[in-house]
UniProtKB/TrEMBL annotation:
Family: Belongs to the aldehyde dehydrogenase family.
Matches recorded under Gene3D superfamilies: Aldehyde Dehydrogenase, Chain A, domain 1, Aldehyde Dehydrogenase, Chain A, domain 2
Gene Ontology cellular component list: cytoplasm
Aldehyde dehydrogenase domain mapped to chain residues: 4-434
Active site as annotated: E216, C250
A molecular-function term among this protein's GO annotations: aldehyde dehydrogenase (NAD+) activity
Leader sequence segment: none
Domain of life: Eukaryota
Keywords: Carotenoid biosynthesis, Oxidoreductase
One biological process term in Gene Ontology: aldehyde metabolic process
UniProt-recorded name of the protein: Aldehyde dehydrogenase
Length: 461
């Protein structure tokens, strides 16, 4: 399937503009109906979606159901259950007489027409979860799936118009070139998931129209292992996280910084767990995800070849199928090629440092989306929270902070800004519009200081 033409995009843009202006998407009944239809769209097309995920990523059905599809359906049900609560007016505290007498309210109004730009690594979840939040907020929407997961893009282009209101939720396809035309138009919100380099292009384009933006980016998330960790369980969690989607997860462990006193035991355990997950060191199981495309395969291949570290596990790879084995590299210095950018793949560099060294290395790589600290010392946990900055933190496991339904998810600094998940997503697509009624007329008698001619006696000043 080719990309949308400029004329097709313009038509879609005017359609959603007109629909939003009509007020149709503000109706709570409409929002509920679209959310239910989104749930059924996923349910009815599970097999097609799993097949597309296999085509694009060679991802096993179980992983696709749990991570892409299951999380999305859970989020839709949670949103339906809480729609009224999350979208109702807020009443500021009553102690202020202006609030009390004026009956102040904060209305959550949809921002307008939202553009949602998806990423390829979870091409269903990361495109449709923001869409769910935008529908719940009452926005009209243009959805732009990633052009790097083409099979998933094609399924979304086919099913979205079959299930959702074609005057209010439209899907367009675009690569980098077509995006220039799309980003020329003013939107009321842009929600972007992807790399920081493209994030800057989106942000600059949005600035021309003063369009608010959510940037869900990535970064070099470290796992920090101290001597106060359970070494076996740390290795298990880190290996399992790196195995998932072959490391192509924004929240994934990019590298491990391990205290030198426990490094040897930790690396040995890591290898054992990769053996278990692969079903044998040289096995290439069908349930292991491959690298999305040759460009990313070549990038990982080059970073590994240029590294001065030692490959102590894995390293096998095959460009034709884009299989890239989980690979442990020890003796990595902060100046190494493997440390020059977010890996977004199954290579796991190991750096030696104590907790102070881990903080200093982490501060030099921007602010990651997550930090995973493996320690059972409460004092060390407090230090992690106080002495580092990141989107979120998980102690003694990886990526868990993305899961709680109502907790905000988002980056900081180089990992982006803005939040979503649960009420935070609905808020991201909403404008908080305060309104107040004039105070009762009998209050006028107490307000003489408001009116000129001014005199200090009126205010006792
Ligand atoms: P990407 O930036 O290449 O692409 C993301 C989206 O931007 C795609 O829809 C793509 O079509 C579009 N795009 C590409 N070039 C463009 C351009 N020049 N102008 C306008 N739009 C353009 O990102 P990616 O490779 O798909 O994803 C990998 C990155 O995304 C990693 O850095 C990862 O950490 C991050 N990520 C973040 C999250 C999160 O939730 N924070 C989730 C997944 C991925």
């Amino acid at each position: 399937m080719g990309f949308s033409t400029a004329a097709e995009f313009d038509q879609a843009y005017h359609t959603v503009q007109d629909t939003f202006a009509s007020g149709a998407t503000k109706d709570k009944g409409w929002r509920r109906q679209q959310l239910k239809r989104t749930w059924w769209m996923i349910e009815d097309n599970r097999d097609r979606l799993c097949a597309a995920l296999y085509t694009d990523l060679h991802r096993h059905r179980q992983e696709s159901i749990i991570a892409d599809i299951g999380m999305l359906q859970k989020d839709i049900l949670h949103t339906l259950q809480n729609l009224d609560k999350w979208t109702q007016d807020e009443i500021p505290t009553r102690w202020d007489p202006v609030n009390f007498l004026g009956n102040t309210r904060v209305r959550k109004e949809p921002k307008g027409v939202a553009l949602i730009i998806g990423a390829w690594n979870y091409p269903i979840l990361l495109t449709l979860q923001p869409m769910v939040a935008a529908i719940a907020a009452g926005c009209a929407i243009i959805v732009k799936p990633s052009d790097m997961a083409l099979a998933c893009q094609d399924v979304l282009v086919d099913i979205i118009p079959q299930y959702l209101d074609t005057s209010a939720v439209l899907v367009v396809t675009a690569g980098a070139q077509e995006m220039q035309h799309i980003l020329d138009r003013p939107f009321d919100h842009i929600f972007y998931t992807g790399s920081g380099s493209v994030g800057k292009i989106i942000y600059a384009a949005a600035a021309k129209h003063l369009t608010p933006v959510t940037l869900e980016l990535g970064g070099q998330a470290p796992a920090i292992v101290t001597p106060a960790a359970d070494i076996d369980l740390s290795a298990k969690h880190i290996a399992a996280t790196k195995f998932q989607n072959a490391g192509q997860i924004c929240l994934n462990v990019n590298h491990v910084i391990v205290d030198p006193t426990v490094r040897e035991a930790f690396v040995e355990k890591l290898g054992q767990y990769f053996d278990t997950f692969l079903g044998g060191r040289d096995n290439r199981p069908d349930y292991y995800t491959h690298i999305i495309n040759e460009r990313n395969f070549d990038r990982l291949d080059r970073l590994l070849r240029e590294s001065s570290g030692q490959i102590v596990y894995g390293g096998q790879r095959d460009r034709a199928t884009r299989f890239f084995a989980p690979t442990i590299v020890t003796g990595v210095q902060p100046s190494d090629s493997l440390f020059s950018e977010e890996l977004f793949g199954p290579i796991l560099p190991i750096l030696d440092a104590d907790l102070d060294g881990a903080f200093s290395i982490t501060r030099k790589t921007g602010r990651p989306l997550g930090i995973y600290a493996f320690t059972h010392s409460e004092a060390e946990k407090r230090r992690v929270l106080n002495e580092t900055q990141s989107g979120g933190v998980t102690f003694n496991d990886c990526t868990l902070h993305v899961l709680p339904s109502d907790a905000p998810f988002g980056g900081t600094g180089t990992s982006g800004f803005g939040y979503y998940h649960g009420p935070h997503g609905v808020r991201e697509f909403s404008h908080l519009r305060t309104y107040i009624n004039a105070m009762p007329s009998w209050v006028e008698g107490l307000l003489s200081a408001r009116y000129p001619p001014y005199s200090l006696e009126k205010t006792n000043a």
